[in-house]
Design a protein that fits this description.
Length: 65
């Protein structure tokens, strides 16, 4: 689990789908863990992608670096 000093915004990851409007929150964790969850989910559900938000901001699609 990532540690913070409390000053940084916390990043929450989730999995979204082009097929369904719902987002499955993955919680506050690392991008590496979220990417692994996405890889696992994409074998079962086509069209899934990773999203993130800071604190309670709206979800935004994660773009590959």
């Amino acid at each position: 689990m990532e540690t913070t000093t409390g000053d940084e915004p916390r990043i929450e990851y989730g999995i979204a789908s082009t097929e369904h409007p719902d987002i499955e929150p993955l919680g506050h964790g690392s991008l590496r863990r979220a990417t692994a969850e996405l890889a696992d989910s994409s074998t079962v559900w086509p069209g899934v992608y990773l999203v993130q938000r800071h604190d309670r901001d709206p979800w935004q699609r994660v773009t590959p670096e």
